[in-house]
Amino acid sequence: MKIAMVGSGYVGLVSGACFADFGHDVVCIDKDESKIARLLDGVMPIYEPGLAELVSANVKAGRLSFSTDLGSAIEGAQAVFIAVGTPSRRGDGHADLSYVRAVAQELAANIRTPTVVVTKSTVPVGTGDEVERIIRESGTAVQFAVVSNPEFLREGAAIGDFKRPDRIVIGAEDEWARGVMREVYRPLFLNRAPILFTSRRSSELIKYAANAFLATKIMFINEMADLCEKVGGDVQDVARGIGLDGRIGSKFLHAGPGYGGSCFPKDTLALLKTAEDYGSPVRLVEAVVKANDSRKRAMGRKVIEALGGDARGKRVGLLGLTFKPNTDDMRDAPSIAIVQTLLDAGAQIVAYDPEGMEAAAAIMPEVQMVNSTYAAVEGADAVALVTEWDAFRALDFARVKSLMKAPVLVDLRNVYDPAEARAAGFAYSSVGRV
C-alpha cells in the first residue's frame, strides 16, 4: 500500500519510517525544504534512539522517500496522514489548527483517486469534521473519508511504541475507511495489537483524555511527595504501595519536578479550552495544570534551600536539561523554570545534557554549557540532577565531591539512595524522601 505522511516532524517521521519498515511504500512530505534536504542526506531533524538507522535502512530498500511537493507525492496513495504540528495558540491556549487547515485545503485541490485522509496530529474534538468540510466544499468528486488515528508515542521510546502499541485507536464513520485502515495496520495483527474502532469525535477525545489522566497521575504523586517530606514518609514506598493495586498501576508514579515536553502541557491546556467552549469545565485538569506550573519553580527553590537559602553568587551545576532522557526536546522542560528561579536568586549556572544543549542554549543564554558531567560539577556550590539520563545514574561520588566547592547534591529524580549519598559525604536532598 502507498502511504503519504504530510509533516516530517517527530510524529510524521517516526510513523512514516515504521510504516515503511512494515513493507508499505511511504513518502514523507514537508514544506521545509532544508529539512527535506537534510533527510535526503540522512540527517535527522530530531534525536530519537534508532530512528536514523531505521530511516536509512528503508530509504536504501526503496520503501521510504521524501518530498516537498504534496501534489505529486500523494499520487496513488490510499491513505494520506496529516501529521503537522498543533502548538498552543498564542494568547488563548487553544490548539493552533492553522497547519491542519492548510494541509486540508491543499489535499482538497490535489486528491485524484479514492483517499482516506487520516488525522494523526493531536487535535481538538470536531477537527475531523472541519477537515471533511474543507475537502467537501472544494467540490471534489473523488471518493474520500476523514479518519482520526491519534498517536501514543513516547519520546525516547517511539519506535517500540509504534511497533508494539498498547492499542491502535481509529475513529471512522464508514466501513470503507475502516477497511483501508485495517490494511494500513495489518502488519501489527501478528503482534495481536488491539485495534479500537470508535466514532471520529470519540477518537479525538481519547488522545486528550489519556494525556490528561497521565498528567494527573504525575501531579498526584508529586503532591504526595510534598506530604511525605512533611510527615517523614518515603514517596517511593508510597508509589510502590499504591502502584501494586491493579486498578492504579505503577506507571507515571515517579515523583519529580513536573511534566514537560511536546504533549502533556499543550494537550492539557487544549482540553481545558475545549471544555470551556462546550460549557463542561474539567476542574481536576485545571488543578493539574496549575499545580504543574508552580511545581517547576518550587524545584528551583528546593535547590536554593539546599544552598542555605541564599543562592546569590553561588555556582550551581545542572545535570540534564531536556524534559526527559533519550530526547533532545526542550519544550516546556522543567529545567527552564528551575534555571529562571535560580537566575532570579542570583546564582551562576553551569549545565550538561547529553543531547539537549544546542536547543537549551537558545532558550537559556545565561547558562554556561559544558561538554561533560564532571565539567558541570567542577567548582559548584551545589549540583542538581534534573533529568535522569543513564549517564548520571552511576556518578563517581568521590570524584564529584573532590571537584565541587561544597558537597551539596539535590536529586530531583530520586536516582540515588539517600543513605549512600550521605555516607559519601554529601549534603543530600531529594523529592519526597527524608
Please outline the helices and strands.
Elements: E1 2-6, H1 10-21, E2 25-29, H2 33-40, H3 51-60, E3 64-67, H4 70-73, E4 79-82, H5 98-110, E5 115-119, H6 127-136, E6 144-148, H7 158-163, E7 168-171, H8 175-184, E8 195-198, H9 200-231, H10 235-243, H11 264-277, H12 283-306, E9 315-319, H13 334-344, E10 348-352, H14 357-363, E11 368-369, H15 373-377, E12 382-385, H16 397-403, E13 408-411, H17 418-423, E14 427-429
What does this structure look like?
By secondary structure, this protein is of the alpha/beta class. The protein has two domains: 2-198, NAD(P)-binding Rossmann-like Domain (Rossmann fold), CATH 3.40.50.720; 237-429, NAD(P)-binding Rossmann-like Domain (Rossmann fold). It contains 17 helices and 14 strands. The protein has helices at 10-21, 33-40, 51-60, 70-73, 98-110, 127-136, 158-163, 175-184, 200-231, 235-243, 264-277, 283-306, 334-344, 357-363, 373-377, 397-403, 418-423; strands at 2-6, 25-29, 64-67, 79-82, 115-119, 144-148, 168-171, 195-198, 315-319, 348-352, 368-369, 382-385, 408-411, 427-429. Strands 3-2-1-4-5-6 form a six-stranded parallel β-sheet, sandwiched between helices. Helix 1 (10-21) crosses helix 3 (51-60) and helix 9 (200-231) packs parallel to helix 12 (283-306). The protein is elongated and about 75 Å long. The termini are far apart.
